Amino acid sequence: MRTEIASLGEFGLIDRLTESIKLTNESSTYGVGDDAAVLSYSSEKQVLVTTDLLMEGVHFDLTYVPFKHLGYKAAIVNFSDIYAMNGTPRQITVSLALSKRFSVEDVDALYDGIRLACQQYNVDIVGGDTSSSLTGLAISITCIGDTEKAVYRHGAKDTDLICVSGDLGAAYMGLQLLEREKSVLKDEKDLQPDFSGKEYLLERQLKPEARKDIIEKLAAANIVPTSMIDISDGLSSELLHICKQSKAGCRVYEEHIPIDYQTAVMAEEFNMNLTTCALNGGEDYELLFTVPIADHEKVSQMEGIRLIGHITKSELGCALITRDGQEFELKAQGWNPLKEEK
Amino acid sequence: MRTEIASLGEFGLIDRLTESIKLTNESSTYGVGDDAAVLSYSSEKQVLVTTDLLMEGVHFDLTYVPFKHLGYKAAIVNFSDIYAMNGTPRQITVSLALSKRFSVEDVDALYDGIRLACQQYNVDIVGGDTSSSLTGLAISITCIGDTEKAVYRHGAKDTDLICVSGDLGAAYMGLQLLEREKSVLKDEKDLQPDFSGKEYLLERQLKPEARKDIIEKLAAANIVPTSMIDISDGLSSELLHICKQSKAGCRVYEEHIPIDYQTAVMAEEFNMNLTTCALNGGEDYELLFTVPIADHEKVSQMEGIRLIGHITKSELGCALITRDGQEFELKAQGWNPLKEEK
């Protein structure tokens, strides 16, 4: 079934998408339906704002990403930025631009994914904008959150421990897998690709989660990171952000970088260097943070967190120590759509 | 001169665009450069959030809109939404998606316009996102503001007076003029169009302002509107929003709708119905609001504000009273890019 968006019009579509929305956060005073959303934050909290603009063909490929997953992920990547500030996401606004190619059912599915993410993370949809585009789909999400104590990228100090949540490189491997199947199956519409044994990689690429649990665990353990960032462009790139803004160097140990078994198998299959994938593969949405060395015991006991190295004085630069003890300068080869244009 | 964006890369471009940014608002704690901006609002204020996604070919046409004007307008339309809530804009985030067609110089000019608007209205750029697009330019701006008393669309009451700032229809006429010149001059590159005597129309289309002054005047006169909205889709459409959400009707008098002389001349030249242009031409960014009848004297003395009618009981519907006393039902024929797709 295909319903044309034009048959509803802009206001009809907005009504359809937003009619079932309920506000659950105390700070959400008024949501969709006026010139602006109205929020009420207490003075003890700092308000966090982050935004992302996702363009079809650059940030997502609808030939293998279902609309519902796309919506879910578009919301999650913004939540992740709020958690990376040691905050809690509370509200989002959602703007969509849609070409004639898309039906009301497509937008419903996209919005279902956004709503699901909002339910899982207790975030309210408070506004947005829906209009047309000449070609393709554009999604712009802004997320507002709060925190009692913002953690920035710039607070890392010499001797601080570098920690990372979860494991790295799997989302990138999931992308490689999907791209391969796309080109293999291009001319054979009826073949169903066999992804068995690779489910984790696909899930990491198609349905990532934001690390709410890590922020809660850190708070429960009374640990305030000295710096924090989420890993969207790859570990190397994010570590360099922290070191540059903290005016510091770092040493990261290859053997401590957390990598899932499926990621390793897939890298082998693709004949790719596993460490390179873990350092530079994007979209992990794990948290990278530093803690004072005094927190060593507490943090090393926390499930799902791995110590991968330590912060140094700036003069020592940023380096990876390989398994055989060699030092290599860390470089940002992260995912960068503007550079890829070359 | 043309510098390729790829030669700077994403982070290089962001650095270039944001290096000169200074934060001037007390509530702007931390701006560009981390996972999220950090804002500090006092509990007495409500926080307002509005967002707009502008797509090339739908919301703007670069064949006659200079980049600097585009940037200025993209910011202004968001400020206007904050004023329409009886608020003050404080911060914006700016996301851009750019195809290879655009140079660093183009983006500089676009950002110059955004920065100029921010300076004029004392708003801080606190974040954003820059990436590539397959075709065209997409601009997403989110504006955050504050208010001590939010004014919604839904507060209009029977017998309230309907007021509008400035004059209507000029921006629409400016657009018609630019579209005409575009088609006339399509094949004659060297001809310069003659816009003398029509400067006001072009200014209203290319460099609109948000009505900060009206919000300040109302506050100074101790008038709190019962409802308010900014006119972006045309007077009819906005009046219907107010009446629908306020569960009310209205009577608007054709003879009281404020129209500039140039708008009238241009409508004559294009053989268009002037009232239709004023009712349905979009992008005026004037404020439409209602006040209790007790404020009649105060509001009628305010410069730049015109009383155009009054709110009625819902049963009476929404109608325009023409100069010869006839009643016509108001209809929203406003600018609607989703409907235009048909």
From TrEMBL, chains A, B:
Q: Which CDD domains match?
A: ThiL
Q: In which pathway does it act?
A: Cofactor biosynthesis; thiamine diphosphate biosynthesis; thiamine diphosphate from thiamine phosphate: step 1/1
| Residue stretches spanning the membrane | none
Q: What start-end ranges are recorded for coiled-coil regions in this protein?
A: none
Q: Give me the residues that bind Mg(2+) 5, please.
A: 233
What GO biological process, any one, is recorded here?
Answer: thiamine biosynthetic process
Question: Which protein family is named in the record?
Answer: Belongs to the thiamine-monophosphate kinase family.
Q: What is this protein called?
A: Thiamine-monophosphate kinase
Q: Identify the species of origin.
A: Bacteroides reticulotermitis
Classification from the root reads: Bacteria, Pseudomonadati, Bacteroidota, Bacteroidia, Bacteroidales
Gene name of the record: thiL
